[in-house]
Amino acid sequence: MQELTKKRAWAYAIDGAIASGASLALEPLMRRKVKSGFVQTVVLPTALAWGLEYAQMRLNGGTVGQKVMGIRILSEDGAEPAASQIIRRMAHRDTVGPLQYWRHRKAYKQYEGTRFPYDVYARTKVEMD
Fold first, then answer.
1. Segment 50-82, tens digit of pLDDT
2. Rounded (to 5) percent helix, strand, coil in the chain
3. What is the overall mean pLDDT for the chain?
4. Contact residues for 60 (Cβ-Cβ < 8 A; gap 6+)
5. What's the pTM?
6. Nearest-CA neighbor of 90 among 119, 59, 129?
7. Which long-range contacts (CB under 8 A, 24 or more apart) does 17-24 make?
């Protein structure tokens, strides 16, 4: 596995742990307000994770995991990603992105870890600081 790909995986794991911790902290509050099990187990954790990621990307230029691992997400032209790019990237990454990667993983080796299917879709790239 390439160095950048490892850093991306660790950054995603760190961000996932933070989002899980926040979700566990908010779960008792949400259990009282929302009675649907599906909403509690699927919708709220996903919305919280996306909300945290979006806020960190817009306010700090990267998530905690990305900062710790020394990587950053940029537009294809090297600028900070736009709000629409961040949303498109998250949605694609958490839905069809993994399937596309597994179907065409040889094609993504040419990018040497800088781009995965969701990066291509959102027109972003990942660089090491």
1. 999 999 999 999 999 999 999 999 999 999 999
2. 70, 10, 20
3. 92
4. 67
5. 0.88
6. 119
7. 18/52, 18/64, 18/65, 19/45, 19/48, 19/49, 19/52, 19/53, 20/45, 22/48, 22/52, 23/48, 23/49
